[in-house]
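Justification of computing resources. Each target in the renewal requires a structure prediction run like the one illustrated here; the chain below, 185 residues long, is used simply to show the kind of job we budget for.
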Amino acid sequence: MANYIKQSLEEGETIIFKGRLHWSYIFRYIFFSLLLTCIGIAVICVAYKQPAENKSVYFYAGIALFVLAFIIWIVGRIVRTRSEFAITDTRFVQKDGIFNIKMTEIPLARIETVNFYQSLWQRILGTGCVEMVGSGGTSHQVHCIEEPMKVRKIICASIKKPQPNQSAQANQITQNTQDNDTTNN
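Resulting structure tokens:
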């Protein structure tokens, strides 16, 4: 699933959580696929009640509707799998697209607030939206994801953890300060 995300990992970076879009994101594809399948069944049933010369036209029209329904369903599956995101120990990474790929990366140290949005229907279905507000007021929303509250909790917990390079930088700053104090005295 996370081929592009795995390729973008830096040395020593690990994935904490992999997420994906909820099935309701492709509801319209599922709906139209089922609708065309039902119409295809109805057309094939009508074909058996027609005279012999018209039977094949209705039968092939029903088969064409089945094929179209299958293509719409496949397109929906591709649309759902085209977007993936992951939370690593240092950043949030999201990949969108199939042919034209867009990678969005937000360092966890830059995230100030994590907002969570969920309507009544989204609560029933188990989906929602997570918005990360970064320093400077920039924001990034991930819509219609599975387990949005879990994603929010993982991001919040990761923000609160000291980053490995931050603790090393803090130790370096402390050491430099102590060295300056001893040279000044």
